[in-house]
Amino acid sequence: MTAAAEARFALAVHGGAGTIRRASMTAKDEAAYRAALDVALEAGAKILRDGGSALDAVEAAVVVLEDDPLFNAGRGSVLNAEGRVEMDAAVMDGRGRKAGAVAAVGSVRNPVILARRVMEHSPHVLLVGAGAEAFGKEQGVAFAGPEWFRTERRIRELDRAKREKKIRLDHSSPKFGTVGAVALDGAGNLAAATSTGGMTNKRWGRVGDSPIVGAGTYAANGVAAISGTGEGEYFIRLTIARDIAARMEYAGQNLNEAAEAAIRTLTDAGGAGGVIAVDAEGNIAMPFNTPGMYRAALHPDGRKEIAIYGDDGR
Amino acid sequence: MTAAAEARFALAVHGGAGTIRRASMTAKDEAAYRAALDVALEAGAKILRDGGSALDAVEAAVVVLEDDPLFNAGRGSVLNAEGRVEMDAAVMDGRGRKAGAVAAVGSVRNPVILARRVMEHSPHVLLVGAGAEAFGKEQGVAFAGPEWFRTERRIRELDRAKREKKIRLDHSSPKFGTVGAVALDGAGNLAAATSTGGMTNKRWGRVGDSPIVGAGTYAANGVAAISGTGEGEYFIRLTIARDIAARMEYAGQNLNEAAEAAIRTLTDAGGAGGVIAVDAEGNIAMPFNTPGMYRAALHPDGRKEIAIYGDDGR
User: Fold this and answer.
1) Please, which pLDDT band fits residue B201 given cuts at 50, 70 and 90?
2) Strand order in the sheet with A224-230
C-alpha cells in the first residue's frame, strides 16, 4: 500500500471535442463544464491515490461523466427518433489487452459498467442491442427508466431536430459528445474507457468508434492507453487509437509524436476530433483538431490541468 | 485495358480455419471444399483479369462463398436459438481506407453487398440489427426468406445443439466459419472483404471480428489487405488485421514476417485462427495456427494454390 501510494500515476478525462468557442460560451456554462471535469478527474484520482487500479479509475471517472447531464453519454445521452437513448461504451485493460464493449443499448444506467461486465463475465468482447441488455439483466447492473434519460435539454433538442426534420449526425454536428478516461496506475497498468450517447433523432442502428477496440478505445501495458472523441467513422477507418500505440511500438515514436501524427492523419482524411492518451511513464497527450475539447489531466508530479479551448493552458 | 490486362494482380480467399484434419474428411467432402474455393477464386480472378477493381473482385468472391451452403456465411449461416440467422460482414477499400460493415443482420441474402452499400451510400461505417436491414431495404438489396437459409445441415446442427443444451460459441467450436477475400488489382489498389454467420444456438447479440475494421478486416493501399478467421474475441483485442499492416508500415517487416508475427501474438494470447493477406506487390501470406484453413490463392505469376490442411502445398 505504501509502495502503491508513493508510486507515480497519471489520469486524463475528456467530455467531447468540437466547435467549442470561447465567444459562444457563457462564464456560467464554462464554469459548469470545468467543475464537472474536475469531479470526474477526482473520482479517478482518489482510486489511484489509494493504490487502486487504472481500470477502476477510468470506470469511476466515466461513471461520473455518464451521470452528469452536461455530457452526451449515460444520463445526458441525446434522444433518437423514438425519444429513446441508444448508447455505446467500451473498456480496455492494458493487462493482457482484455476488452469489453456494448453498442446500441437503451435503459442501462451506466453503459461503461456493462462494458466491464462483458469483459469480466462473458467470453465475448462486443454485445449489441437487446442481447446486451439481456446480459446486463443477468448481471444485475442498474437500469434506468425514460425519466432518468429524458432531460429537459435533450427533449428540447429532439423537438427542434424533428421540427427541422434533421438527423443530427455526429459527422455534421459541431460537437462530438463522447466521454472517456485513460489512466496509469501505481503498479504500471494502463486502462482506457469511452462512452457515448450517439446522435439526436438517429436511425439505422449506426455504431460509432467508442465501442470499437483500436478505433475510439485502446490500452496495452508498456505502450499507451487512448480514448477518442470525434467523427467516429474516421476513427474506425483510420484505427486511430491502435495507430497511436503502433507508432510507439513499431516506429519508436514517443506518446506525443504518435498522438499528434494520428491526429494529422485524421485532419488529412478530412475528419475532426481528438484523443486523450497516457503512456507507461505517465506522460499525457491530448491533441485535437477542433476548436475545443473538454479535457482534464492529473500528471504524475501532481500538476492538474483543466481545459476547454485550443489555446487553454498552452 | 491492355495495360490493366498485362498488369500484375493477386487474389486469395478463405472459407474458415479450425480443427480440419485429413483423417476426419471424406475424399468427397474434401473435393467439394476444394471445388467451392476454386469457384470463388475464379469469380474474383475473372474481374481482375478483365481489368476490374480489387473491391469488385473481393465482393464477387465472397458472394460466391456466401451463396454456397458449405460455408458459415450468407446461405450456409448457422441458426441461432430462434432458428434464424444473424450475420456480420465488412468490406474495406484500400483507396482512402474507406470501409462499410453490418452486424447482426438476418434475411439479407448477401451481407457483403449490404456492407459495400453502407460504405458507398451512407455516411457511416457500421450499421447493426434492424437499422442495418432498414437501410438495406432502402437500398434495394436482395432479401431472402427462412427457406433460403434453413438448410438441412444447419437445422440438424441446431437440433443437436438444443438437445445438448449447448450454445456453439466460436471460442469453443472446432471450426470458425467465416469467409473472406483479399485482392490487389492491376491499378495497384488493395481491398478486403469478410463475412460470417456466427454461432449455432447463439444469444446475447454477440458481434465478432469480421465486421470490425482492424480486427478481422483491413486494407490500405501501399501496405496490405487482410481478412481473418478464428476466435473473434482475440482478433478484436489484438487488432490482428491492423497489427499486420502496422508492422509493415512502421517496423519495416515484409508481409510474411508481419502476418506470421501477428499469428504468433494470437497463439501467445491463447487464441486460434488464421488470416489471408496480400501486399502492394502481390505477395500472398496465409498463416494460421489451427490444424487447417480452407484457402486458395492466385499469385501474380498465374500460379494457383488450393489448400485445406497445414501441410498442404508446403
Assistant:
1) low
2) A217-220, A224-230, A273-279, A284-285
Q: What is the pLDDT of residues B41-58, one digit of tens each?
A: 999 999 999 999 999 999
In the residue annotation, A194 being an active-site residue is answered as no
Q: Is the dihedral of CA A106, A107, A111, A113 positive or negative?
A: negative
pLDDT at A4 over 50: no
Residue B155: the pLDDT is: 81
Nearest CA in chain B to A251: B250
Q: Which of these is catalytic: B2, B151, B178, B229?
A: B178
Q: Minimal Cα–Cα distance from A38 to chain B, Å?
A: 31
Q: The pTM is what? A: 0.94
Give the number of domains in chain B. Answer: 1
In a domain, residue B13? The reply is: yes
CB B19: neighbour CB atoms within 10 A? 13
Chain A residue at shortest CA distance from B239: A214
The verdict on residue A199 lying in a domain is: yes
Residue B314 lies in a domain: no
Q: What percent of chain A has pLDDT over 70?
A: 92
Q: At which residue does the C-alpha cell 502492394 appear?
A: B280
Q: Assess whether pLDDT exceeds 80 at residue B294.
A: yes
The pLDDT tens digits of the residues spanning A111-124 come to 999 999 999 999 99
In a domain, A232, yes or no: yes
Distance from the B252 Cα atom to the nearest Cα atom in chain A, whole angstroms? 9
Q: Domain range holding B193?
A: 3-307
CB-nearest partner of A97 from B122, B213, B238:
B238
This model of the complex carries an ipTM of 0.93
Residue of A nearest to B138 (CA): A204
**Choosing from A2, A151, A178, A194, which is the catalytic residue?**
A178
With CA atoms as reference, report the closest residue to A229 among A13, A17, A69: A17
What distance in Å separates residue A268's CA from the closest CA in chain B? 11
| Residue contact B251–A250, C-beta within 8 A | yes
Angle (deg, nearest 10), helices B54-67 and B27-49: 150
CATH number for position B88: 3.60.20.30
Rg (CA), chain A: 18
Across the interface, whether the CB atoms of A237 and B204 are under 8 A apart is answered no
